[in-house]
Amino acid sequence: MTQLSDLPLRANLVGKRPYGAPQDPVPISLNVNENTHPLPEDVVADIVASLAEAVRGVNRYPDRDFRELREALAGYLGRGLDDGLDADRLWAANGSNEVLQQVLQAFGGPGRSLLSFTPTYSMYPLLADGTDTRWVPIPRLDDYTLTPAHVADALREHRPDIAILCGPNNPTGTVLDTETILAAYDAFEGILVVDEAYFEFDGSRASAASLLPGRPRLLVSRTMSKAFAFAGVRLGYLAADPAVIDALRLVRLPYHLSALTQAAAIAAIRHADEMLATVTDIRAQRDRLSAGLRELGYEVHPSGANFLLVGGFESPTATFEALRAHGILIRDLGIPGHLRITAGTEAETGTLLEAVRALGPGGARA
Ligand SMILES: *Cc1c(COP(=O)(O)O)cnc(C)c1O
């Protein structure tokens, strides 16, 4: 049988492993930070009606520039901003992973570099590898926070072509301050991406999109995969200067957003308030999970997202497997002593807490 190593793979991909969060069909999946609440039935019905209409037109290619969707996204994202946002500043692709890949294709590549502050989203180095961009990981401070000085020093020293600040940060949950974003922007000449995948769960601060005027190198990425409960549709988006959008058009595949994706996303945004109604409960479950785990003796890092990074496990791998055997999936990211747990519904959170309690202090033993 042919092995991967028999193939003439690009040198920078040799020995690399694909993104691989387990996808077991277990009753309780709290491992990839989805919104685990079901979609409201009336929203489902409206999306299905929109899809039915779109199917009638699929003999034709979809709108390559997905104008209607960009207007809908601009309306949604612009809500919290003084001057709003227009569609020329909006872009979208099949998940924010694809948006970020396009950013790397346009602004990264051979001889260029991507810097971020670790631990952070595991896709950043994979996207760097896929585009032959050099990955520059800079450790966060001991409590996983970032300060304006820490960020600015790293950017001044390494002068990357692209930097990504993830806030709230995956997998630590750490929130990101405006002062840190501004210090980063002023410290280097490259593209600064603020990844706001978990923005809606924080609720306490303004979007970095409010900083866009006058900052053409600032890109703010968002997704419908998390708070919006739309992970299966694959829709991520970005707000930036119209010139940045022009750059992304150079690398996107023609018609990359299918007519069905566009129709589903437009319909869902029409119901944004209903789609996001579960966010309040998810925050409450996150805080309940945090309190419950602290009571059991675990160290829970402060989180502005829909998940918690939890320390104090004697063997994260053994606890991961013990919970998996109980039909509960959480995430082992290889951080010593730690596991990441998504806040689910009230019932899921209760079951998880009971299962962890039953393992005894420090969790399962290796
Ligand atoms: C989940 C996540 C994304 C979103 O990925 P999609 O491709 O939009 O599903 C982006 N950034 C971070 C940090 C994430 O955790």
Automatic annotation (TrEMBL):
<dbReference type="GO" id="GO:0000105">
    <property type="term" value="P:L-histidine biosynthetic process"/>
</dbReference>
<keyword id="KW-0663">Pyridoxal phosphate</keyword>
<keyword id="KW-0808">Transferase</keyword>
<dbReference type="GO" id="GO:0004400">
    <property type="term" value="F:histidinol-phosphate transaminase activity"/>
</dbReference>
<keyword id="KW-0368">Histidine biosynthesis</keyword>
<dbReference type="GO" id="GO:0030170">
    <property type="term" value="F:pyridoxal phosphate binding"/>
</dbReference>
<dbReference type="InterPro" id="IPR015422">
    <property type="entry name" value="PyrdxlP-dep_Trfase_small"/>
</dbReference>
<dbReference type="InterPro" id="IPR001917">
    <property type="entry name" value="Aminotrans_II_pyridoxalP_BS"/>
</dbReference>
<comment type="pathway">
    <text>Amino-acid biosynthesis; L-histidine biosynthesis; L-histidine from 5-phospho-alpha-D-ribose 1-diphosphate: step 7/9.</text>
</comment>
<dbReference type="InterPro" id="IPR005861">
    <property type="entry name" value="HisP_aminotrans"/>
</dbReference>
<dbReference type="Pfam" id="PF00155">
    <property type="entry name" value="Aminotran_1_2"/>
</dbReference>
<protein>
    <recommendedName>
        <fullName>Histidinol-phosphate aminotransferase</fullName>
        <ecNumber>2.6.1.9</ecNumber>
    </recommendedName>
</protein>
<dbReference type="InterPro" id="IPR015421">
    <property type="entry name" value="PyrdxlP-dep_Trfase_major"/>
</dbReference>
<comment type="subunit">
    <text>Homodimer.</text>
</comment>
<feature type="modified residue" description="N6-(pyridoxal phosphate)lysine">
    <location>
        <position position="226"/>
    </location>
</feature>
<feature type="domain" description="Aminotransferase class I/classII large">
    <location>
        <begin position="28"/>
        <end position="355"/>
    </location>
</feature>
<comment type="similarity">
    <text>Belongs to the class-II pyridoxal-phosphate-dependent aminotransferase family. Histidinol-phosphate aminotransferase subfamily.</text>
</comment>
<dbReference type="InterPro" id="IPR004839">
    <property type="entry name" value="Aminotransferase_I/II_large"/>
</dbReference>
<dbReference type="InterPro" id="IPR015424">
    <property type="entry name" value="PyrdxlP-dep_Trfase"/>
</dbReference>
<keyword id="KW-0032">Aminotransferase</keyword>
<keyword id="KW-0028">Amino-acid biosynthesis</keyword>
